Amino acid sequence: MKPITGDIKFFEANITHQRNGKKSHFFKNQTNAILIDLKNKPKQKIPKYPSLFSLKKFNLLTWSASKHGNQRKFTTSNDLYEFIKNLCIDKTQNDEEIHKIKLLTFPKVLSFGFNPLSVYFCYNNKGLLIHSIFEVRNTFGDMHHYILRNINLKKITQKTTKKLFVSPFYPKKGSYKLFANYVHDKILISVEYSLHNKKVFIANMKLKEIKFNNLNIIKAFLKCSIYPGKIWINIHLQALILWFKRVSLYKIPPNEKIKHSFGIEVSKD
């Protein structure tokens, strides 16, 4: 079978969520993620992956491009690569050309999976990170891409206006400060949500690369860092806890018509 992706790396992920305010809430979670080089090289040899991992076929771990991008069921990662590359284009500016895109996401487990957040790292021909894209999905079937363009490596946090209704415990208002960086074998991701100029929510994800082999896949499964539907189950479990705490609920608005937006301010932190 013709490969639909390039090299894939395997990561251990530690995730924390902190809600601030009168009814604070904190939880942490451990899981595993994969980093995918989306662009195939001409005449690339078929990569050899662990037997417990497959592309588009049933297995313990699987990944497919069809659930990313604009949800038009891409059949190849090259299609997804072109879609993401086009998102970064702004006709009013001369941007550096993108030569490589790496996608950080969560694999499906026994064909079950949900990706609330995937991050694309876009590089120029010198291997420098120039753009990053936060692909945010909610449990109501909607998706939005927050695009951080023309990144200055010394200040890679950017501010964006909240466009997607994510949680029924927060309105579709406010702003995010988004950060994502990949250095050597570690990835750091941060999402800070502010409402009425107050920081009300912080999510951090720290990832470290481990060998992508069957042994580590089995270990992850036995440690329950991965199991079918884990992320989806945890989201609803934490929502139930917040409901018991009597946190106010907001009505779910119609799906957002605008599907992507750009970082509006580089932070001066």
Which helices and strands occur, and which strands form pairs?
Blueprint: E1 8-19, E2 25-37, E3 53-55, E4 61-63, H1 77-87, E5 100-105, E6 108-109, E7 117-123, E8 129-137, E9 143-148, E10 158-161, E11 175-183, E12 186-195, E13 198-210, H2 214-222, H3 230-244, E14 260-262, E15 265-266
Describe the protein in words.
- The chain is built from 3 helices and 15 strands.
- The chain starts with 7 loop residues before the first strand and ends with a strand.
- The strands form 2 sheets. The chain has a 12-stranded mixed sheet with strand order 14-9-8-7-5-2-1-13-12-11-10-15.
- With 269 residues, it is mostly beta strands.
- It has one domain (8-266).
- Strand 7 and strand 8 form a beta hairpin.
What does this entry show, briefly?
With 269 residues, the protein is mainly beta.
Q: What's the total number of strands?
A: 15
End-to-end Cα distance, whole Å, is 48 Å
User: What can be said about the biggest beta sheet?
Assistant: 12 strands, mixed
Shape: globular
Q: Structural class, judged by helices and strands? A: mainly beta
Approximate helicity band: 10-25%
Alpha-carbon Rg, integer: 18 Å
Q: Give the topology string: H per helix, E per strand.
A: EEEEHEEEEEEEEEHHEE
Mean pLDDT: 87
Characteristic key phrases:
269 residues, mainly beta, 13% helix, globular
